[in-house]
Each structure stands twice: as C-alpha cells, then as structure tokens.
Amino acid sequence: MARIKSTNFYQKSGKVANEVFSNLGNGEVGCRAKNSKQAPLNEEQKINASGFSALNAEVRYLNPVLHVTFPRDTNGTKWANRFTSVNKKREGVLTTTKIHPDTPVDPKKKANEEYTSKIDWTKVLFAAGPLLVPSVTVNKANLNLEQIIAEKTRLRSRVTPLADAETPVVTAEEGEMYSITFAQEATVYEGAYCWTNDRVYGVIYSPEDHFALVQQLRDRGENGVTTIVVPSFVKPENIHVYSLAMTADGKITSNSIHSTLGA
Asked: Domain of life here (predicted)?
C-alpha cells in the first residue's frame, strides 16, 4: 500500500475510480488499487487480528457508553477506536489461543478460523486518561414490589407524557428489578490532577446479555449515593461495574476502575 503525507489528502478516504484511500492517522493516507489482494497474515498478525475482532464484536453494544467515556483524543481518534486500541495494548485484557494448537498456521485461513480470543472484563478500561480516579463503592440491593411499581411508573411517565391528573397503571412481580448503588466519596486533593467540578460516571455492562448503560453520578467534590435500576433478565453475576471521572468540559478522563458487585 502506498502512503501519502499531504494536507491535501488528510481527510480523503473511500473509493475513487480504481483506487481505495484510507486515513492512517498522523496526516498519512494509504492508497491501494481497488482489486489488490492483501498478503496472507503470519502467526503474530493473526493473533493481533483475533484480539481486535473480539473487542470490535462488543463495540456495537457499547457505542452509547463509549461516546461518553472515550472523548476524541488530540489526534482525533474517536470513541470506538480508542476503546479497542487502549484495551488491545493493555496487559491481561485479552487471552488469545490457537483453536488447534498442534496444527501449523495456514496462510489461506482467516484469523478467526485458527485463533480465538477471550476478554477479561475485570481488566478492561472504559476510560483512559490522567485524571485522578474517583472513590466509588458499588453494591446490589433487591427491590420490593412497591419500589418496582414506583420505578416502572416513573419509566412509563418518561416515555409517555401524561397530564397532571393521570397516573399510569402498571403491574409488577417480585424480583422483576433490582438496584445497583454507587456510594461516592469526595476526592479532591490540592495540587493533584483533579477539580471539584469533575463529573463522575458509572458504567454497567453484562457481556452475556449485551446490556450496557452509562450514567452521570455526582461531581467529584460531592458525597452521596446514586441508584441505578436494572431489569432482572440481566443476571447480577454477569455484571461488570466501572466508575470514572471526567473534566467538566468533557475532554479529559481518568482511567476507569472495575468494581466488584457486592451482595
């Protein structure tokens, strides 16, 4: 593939006639013939490809979260690409194994035909940056029937605007929902890389159910508890919870912290 470094081509991508352009970053644009074939991948490249494939498979479920937690960096790299790049390089996130370890690498086969990668979600970063990490403790709590009805009523009212006198009729069952609480302690230290108005966020993700959400908690300088209600089809044992801090302008974050979900 030819590489071009020119401000005239910086934003150029896609197909033009029989040439395909792709943005390689740092002002470089790759250019190749439309019908040119890629060289077969070697073992190391296939291991790399398998890891990226495992992370990319999660991105479509995580995009609403990553839009918030991974702001564009100084090179303009956007949320999904930052997530995969950061976690591909992070030690312990990916374990890649050969499906048939005794079989030689076949240059004609794709990476996912010969390798499989597993993600350790306790090591994954949902934000990466220099800010001081927040102090957040996470716990699970069961909801009684009255609390479940109140939450379903609140959610329905948000979806369907109601007149002041109207109260939506909802039905509920015991165990239909449970809550996750984020207990936040103010963490502001003079001279440290943090500000009282940094925003703190909580992230919940269940890879088995592909259930993902992000919610702003409180400012860094505040103490308090924020509750997020989760439907029971998302099994608590499958949930991974993360917290992170972000500057008030949304440009810089801390690293995210993985929390164990208490009883």
From this structure: Bacteria
Q: According to DSSP H, which parts of 25-73 are helical?
A: 43-69
Question: Which phi and psi angles does 141 have, rounded to 5°?
Answer: -140, 140
Question: What would the two tokens of residue 110 be?
Answer: 């794709």
Report the half-sphere exposure of 131 (CA within 13 A, side-chain side): 30
Kindly report the backbone phi and psi dihedral angles of residue 50, in degrees, each rounded to the nearest multiple of 5, phi listed first.
-65, -40
Q: What is the largest CA-CA distance in the chain?
A: 72
218-229 average pLDDT score: 96
Strand order in the sheet with 28-33: 2-5, 28-33, 19-25, 14-16
The encoded tokens of residue 104 equal 């030689």
**Dist. CA 89–CA 91, nearest whole Å:** 6
Closest CA to 214 of 240, 190, 196: 240
The confidence band for 9, taking pLDDT boundaries of 50, 70 and 90, is very low
CA–chain centroid gap for 95, Å, is: 19
Long-range own/partner contacts, residues 9-18 (CB < 8 A, 24 or more apart) = none
Residue spans per domain, the chain? 2-33, 43-119, 135-259
What does the alpha-carbon distance between residue 196 and residue 205 come to, in Å, rounded to a whole number? 27
C-alpha span between 183 and 52 (Å, rounded):
34
**CA neighbours closer than 13 Å in the CB half-sphere of residue 3:** 6
Closest C-alpha among 174, 144, 175, 142 to residue 263: 142
At 12, which amino acid appears?
K
Check if the beta carbon of residue 100 is closer than 8 Å to that of residue 34. no
Q: Which CATH class is domain 135-259?
A: mainly beta
pLDDT, position 165: 46
